[in-house]
Amino acid sequence: METFDEIKKMIINQFAVYKEAVVGDAHLQDDLEGDSMAVMRLAEAIATHYKIEIIAEDLLEVANVSELVELVESKIASKS
To answer: What pLDDT does residue 66 have?
Structure first.
């Protein structure tokens, strides 16, 4: 659950939403109202924090926060 919590903090920071809104099935654009700039900043924050390659387009393809966490975890695992 650590990755979820870290990404949740990044989403709260980049999207300026309440922590209660960031749940596993929340969609980045539809539910959390992340615009393209916020999604780009989130991608940069994730890439920097985890030292992985991730771009905004990757985030636009995920359906919700849980899928984002899975994407990040898979990229972390593949770099090892």
So the answer is: 96
Global pTM value: 0.91
- Tokens coding 34: 């992340």
Q: How many CB atoms lie within 10 A of CB 67?
A: 16
Nearest-5° Cα angle at 78, 40 to 31: 35
Q: How far is CA 19 from CA 2, 6, 46, 63, 76, in A?
A: 15, 12, 18, 19, 24
Average pLDDT in the 41-58 region? Answer: 92
Average pLDDT, the chain: 93
Pure H helices in 1-80 = 2-15, 36-50, 56-60, 65-79
Secondary structure of 6-27 as H, E, C letters: HHHHHHHHHHCCCHHHCCCCCC
